């Protein structure tokens, strides 16, 4: 962290939703920010309000050259990177058979590989600084998935797996990692950003169709407030011991608890089978 306690943030996907709310909150908090977007002109108003502490940079997270340029631009503007927020991402709804191969790969490119690209670009700088905090925007679907989110949730599960290991790899180097798991929040996620399956198979109406109906029903009245989420993220970044996982919203919190309960119950039932697969010598030593 810089000497005067003001942090330098780099946020992906700052045009709308969480990214936009967080960008505004970070600047209002007095920190410096490189806000990135695929159309950086969408950030003009924000940048004009904070000409000293804010800079807008074009970034599609699937483009490695743009990732490198955004990191270089942040260093050039503010000399360091204290917080990277991998926020850019979008949903893909449909049964596994209904979504196209192209939709699947595009979703993983953004939600998983986009985040990996930026983490890898920023780590050498944070290692040199011996400090930094990486926030990876997952979803509650990245811990307890929904029917119809096999690919979206799958990409977020993968991001969580990557984050768990990186958390341990970089902790001794002074770098922190936090996975953020929101439930439904009032952003453009269900509206313009949600990618929908290109084909529809009747057999999935009662499962995936039901979840899609739920999403369409809550659009515009999701319980989560992105401005409050932004305050929570700032609080976490300023805390001494930030969590590996930060769950946001009651919906996500309840889902998380339910999954832990069912995992524990299942583990208890199958404990003996698990133990019996070890060599007898290993069993004796454990
Ligand atoms: N809202 C929810 O209920 C919810 C719940 C759990 C997790 N999340 C996660 O929260 C994150 C932010 O989403 P949101 O809810 O704030 O929705 P949003 O308002 O639709 O914002 C999504 C942002 O991601 C950007 N983006 C998408 N693909 C990109 C790419 N290839 N390169 C750079 N930016 C890209 C969008 O840019 P453009 O403006 O150019 O499209 C936009 O800025 C996502 O990772 C999402 O999975 C959201």
Explain the overall architecture.
The structure is a single chain. This protein is an alpha/beta fold and 286 residues long. The chain has 2 domains: 8-248, 3-Layer(aba) Sandwich (Rossmann fold); 252-286. It is built from 10 helices and 9 strands. It has helices spanning 17-28, 44-49, 64-78, 101-129, 150-170, 208-218, 226-237, 250-269, 271-276, 280-285; strands spanning 8-11, 32-37, 54-58, 83-86, 92-93, 132-137, 175-182, 195-196, 245-248. It has a 7-stranded parallel β-sheet with strand order 3-2-1-4-6-7-9, sandwiched between helices. Strands 5-8 form a two-stranded parallel sheet. Helix 5 links the parallel strand 6 and strand 7. The structure holds NADP nicotinamide-adenine-dinucleotide phosphate. The site of NADP nicotinamide-adenine-dinucleotide phosphate has 30 residues, from helix 1 and helix 4.
Summary, kept brief:
This protein is an alpha/beta fold. Helices cover 48% and strands 14% of the residues.
Defining traits:
286 residues; alpha/beta; Rossmann fold; 2 domains; 7-stranded parallel sheet; two-stranded parallel sheet; globular; binds NADP nicotinamide-adenine-dinucleotide phosphate
């Amino acid at each position: 962290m810089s000497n005067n306690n003001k942090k330098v943030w780099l946020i992906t996907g700052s045009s709308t939703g969480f990214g936009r709310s967080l960008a505004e909150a970070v600047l209002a908090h007095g920190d410096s920010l490189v806000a990135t977007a695929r159309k950086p002109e969408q950030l003009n108003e924000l940048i004009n309000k904070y000409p000293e502490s804010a800079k807008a940079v074009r970034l599609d997270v699937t483009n490695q050259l743009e990732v490198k340029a955004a990191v270089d631009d942040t260093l050039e503007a503010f000399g360091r990177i204290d917080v990277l927020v991998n926020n850019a991402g979008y949903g893909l709804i449909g049964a596994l058979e209904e979504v196209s191969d192209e939709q699947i790969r595009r979703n993983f490119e953004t939600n998983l590989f986009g985040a990996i690209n930026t983490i890898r670009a920023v780590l050498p700088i944070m290692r040199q600084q011996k400090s930094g905090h990486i926030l990876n925007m997952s979803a509650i679907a990245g811990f307890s998935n929904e029917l119809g989110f096999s690919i979206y949730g799958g990409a977020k599960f993968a991001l969580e797996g990557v984050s768990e290991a990186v958390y341990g790899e970089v902790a001794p180097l002074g770098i922190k990692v936090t996975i953020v798991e929101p439930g439904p929040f009032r952003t453009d996620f269900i509206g313009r950003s949600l990618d929908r399956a290109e084909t529809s198979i009747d057999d999935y109406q009662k499962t995936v169709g039901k979840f899609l109906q739920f999403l369409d029903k809550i659009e515009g009245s999701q319980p989560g407030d992105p401005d409050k989420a932004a305050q929570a993220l700032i609080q976490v970044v300023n805390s001494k011991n930030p969590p590996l996982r930060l769950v946001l919203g009651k919906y996500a919190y309840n889902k998380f608890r339910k999954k832990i309960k069912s995992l524990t119950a299942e583990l208890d039932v199958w404990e003996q089978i698990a133990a019996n697969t070890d060599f007898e010598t290993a069993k004796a030593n454990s």
